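Q: Structure for this?
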Amino acid sequence: MMHPPALSLSPEKPVIDIKNLVTNFGSTLIHENLNLTIFKGEIIGIIGGSGSGKSVLLRTILGLKPPQSGSIRLLGKDIYQAPESAQEQVDKSCGVLFQNGALYTSLTVRENILVPLKEVAQIYPPFADSIVALKLGMVGLPLDTALKYPSELSGGMTKRVGLARALALDPSILFLDEPTSGLDPISAEAFDTLLKKLHAHLGFTVFMITHDLDTIKSVCTRIGVLLHKKLFLGTFEELKKMEDPWIHDYFHGNRARKIFGKGF
Amino acid sequence: MSAPFLSIQKHRSEIVLFPKGEWCLWTLGKHYQTLQSIDLEDRKIRKVIIDLSEIFKIDTGGAVLLLSLKKRLEDQKYSVKFENGSDETLQILNLVHHYPLNLEDTPKKSSAFRSFVLRLGEATVNLFSLTLQLTSFFGEVIVTLLQSLRKRSSFRLISFCSHLQDVGVNALPIVGLISFLIGVVLAYQGVTQLKRFGTEIFTVNLLALGILREVGILITAIVVAGRSGSAFTAQIGTMVLNEEVDAMQTMGLDPVNVLVIPRIMALMIALPLLTFFSDIVGLLGGAFMTHTLMDLSYVQFIEQLKLAITPTTFWVGMVKSPFFAFLIGLVGCFEGLQVSGSAESIGQHTTKSVVESIFLVIVADAAFSILFSYLGI
């Protein structure tokens, strides 16, 4: 069947459920017994030092890098164990914004957004064009962007087009890999506002890797810290009180103090 | 899963539309045509209510469809209102109705004649500018080459050696195989044709002249153009896309010196050697075939070979190879540096690089033939 899985999950049922995940590159262990449970409608921000395995975690969840052991369930289905049809269904309810946009360089913006609409949901113009117009509008791009090629776009526009493409099929889980990196502070703030607005209206779940302290403070409902091959998940207030040196430095460093205020 | 549909109830003073089922992107693709073509065909009643209470689920796709339906009905002078929507439904409709839903049309295609003239003009201008650019690149390469000959330290020895391995040593098997087969084919044709005159022994002369003067070098040049010229374009093109070439320039490194010279030099050393190899293996193939077809012993073959050729025959073929190598390397690197924008561009330029270098090699070969006939060689 063409249809995606039922999206109306009860609040208690986790959208992303990772149990005892172990991943490695050769003999280097990246994650050791990592656990993570995310519920519907949450916006999770993943932080961690360079090389702590944030991107690897994202790739593992997306089904791009099989783990050594452990289970990953998206929308209740184990993505590495479930039959292919179920895996496809899960894929269809995920939208991904890659770090550099990952737009198809030989297609125009319009065609880029049409790819999931046409190939996956079998929606064709003119209906599909209305959807493209809507999604471009939603991410705050003028409609004449539609005819441009990715090489003609600025970094910020590329990210927005990437987001529009990720949102094309109204995903129930949105994965964002450093959505605000490389953006000027104004664009980054606009991105935060946009994400909050869309989240409020469309109610998707967000899994986001970010280094942006503003985003973490203003957008995320919970924050996951990748540290010592494990993930520490908590609200902003909870993490702030943790005594691990890295977490302490993160939330009490100079930059953090400027953003989070003197009281920290 | 329930398919989306629209039921219509006509009352005395109003028409009520009930969208039912799942109005989601996943289900709408198939039903779009039917949903879009609904026609109320009522001349008296002007009031339409879209009752949202029976929608099972809706996403932005459903909202787009409902809003465009509303707009279409309003254009037909109906007054349209949404009613009884759940919070969720209204929220999505509210979000969507802020945005324009008409994508501007792609620019209209001009008439066939006009576009033909346009393309012809464009192609002509491109041809001239390409020639100009290639010539200026040629000059740049020559200047850099002379500089690196004068100042040895600027020559990239390691890069040169690794390219020599790639374009030379690694090409041996394929060049050898093709040359051997060509030798076999030529010998077969020679023997069958010359047999009619009882002069099949002259097959050896045919082979010797053909392979040493023309076939050996041409086959090798074409294989190398397809193998290494295209690789140069793809490698340099990817570096251009990745801004590696820009990075080089900002460090004060000259891309021509770093990327182009070692490749062209490696090719100019490798191609003569490969040609020599191809000549030998081609003759071997011929010897093998004449031996099979006409019981000519290998010793007899060599005796006849000695009668057929002079050292000049060999050198006439050999002397062309560095020039061909230069052309292949020049075009390969040039096209690589022309890459811009997209992954598609790498493909286009790689194709162009192979086509242009083979074309130039054959043009150069013709020029050499004319030159040799003037010189009486």
